Amino acid sequence: MTEGGQVTRIIVDVMPKPEIHDPQGQAVARACQRLGFGEVTGVRQGKRFEVELAGPADDSALARVRELAAELLANPVTEQFTVRED
Amino acid sequence: MTARVGIVTFPGSLDDGDAARAVRRAGGHPVPLWHGERGLAGVDAVILPGGFSYGDYLRCGAIARFAPIMADLIPAARAGLPVLGICNGFQILCEAHLLPGALTRNSGRRFISRVVRVRIANAGTAWTAGYERGQEVALVLKSGEGAYVAAPATLDALESEGRIVATYTGGNPNGSARAIAGICNEAGNVVGLMPHPEHAIDPLTGPGADGLAFFAGGVRAPVAR
After folding, report:
1. In total, how many domains does chain B have?
2. How large is the ipTM?
3. Sign of the torsion formed by the C-alpha atoms of A23, A29, A34 and A35
4. From CA A44, how far away is CA A24, in angstroms rounded?
């Protein structure tokens, strides 16, 4: 970054949609059971992106990252996402 | 004139060599296309081969969608150029929105590499005209993320419009919705197929030669257009 330039970090959490089968999460849940965490009844596995962009963390920055998430970071057929400031 | 069938190589493509061999065996002339270049070299059809383009980073096919050559391939496919996406190629076609839905991890979690039986449900596409509707063929399934999913309305539309090109028979190996092994776009020129016909063109190296007619389809393409 140039001196004095402001960097904003936006967090995008991507999760498989509830109706989408998540075999990875299931495998992790089973491993929890084997490890003795019997109280774990379910795990779903997703992804977290930390997106850094130039400029302030305003509504337009969030809107841009939301656009990016819908187009690239998440596949709207199988995933849902949330966007927030770090 | 011999049909020229372009085969795109992405970083991580594996089956471009077998696809070229299949095109040659079917009587066509394979034309290597490189992901990083623009233009389709005037080919009559294009195959997106299997493999792990860009290491399957982000999602299978998600990065390949933005390769320079896709900027030419996507409009050409929309304009009617026959395009066959096999395995990773199918994933790329979905990510590029040339086909609906998506391919997700196999329901059994394991990578599957074995011969599967597939029923041709639509013999009217650019790539399946060499088959008869209902014909069963032996192909090779070789994927970890081959489970086809789409919204129920999309699945209903695919079914009612005859756009399910192939279904698994004798069991659903990967948990695909409605046992879908392949689909096509509305015009029938773009086909995505999860099992590999290019590994089934010769009894010496595969389960038989059932897959060869897919490539004969691409080779016939210039006449059909």
Report:
1. 1
2. 0.80
3. positive
4. 8
Each residue of B89-127: pLDDT tens digit? 999 999 999 999 999 999 988 999 999 999 999 999 999
CATH of the domain at B78: 3.40.50.880
Domain that includes residue B83, residue range: 4-224
Q: How far is A7 from chain B (nearest CA, A)?
A: 24
Catalytic residue among B60, B87, B94, B184: B87
B102/A78 Cβ within 8 A: yes
- A15-36 per-position pLDDT tens digit: 999 988 888 899 999 999 999 9
List of chain A residues whose C-beta atoms are within 8 Å of the C-beta of residue B95: 75
CATH number at residue A70: 3.30.1280.10
Cβ(B210)–Cβ(B151) below 8 Å: no
| A/B interface, count of CB pairs below 8 Å | 33
DSSP output for B115-182: EEEEEE----STTTTTS-TT-EEEEEEEESS-EEE--HHHHHHHHHTT-EEEEEESS-SS--GGGEEE
| A49 is a domain residue | yes
At residue A73 the predicted structure's pLDDT band, cuts being 50, 70 and 90, is very high
- Is B132 marked active-site? no
Q: Which chain B residues contact residue A26 at CB under 8 A?
A: 109
Range of the domain at A12: 7-85
B159 is catalytic: no
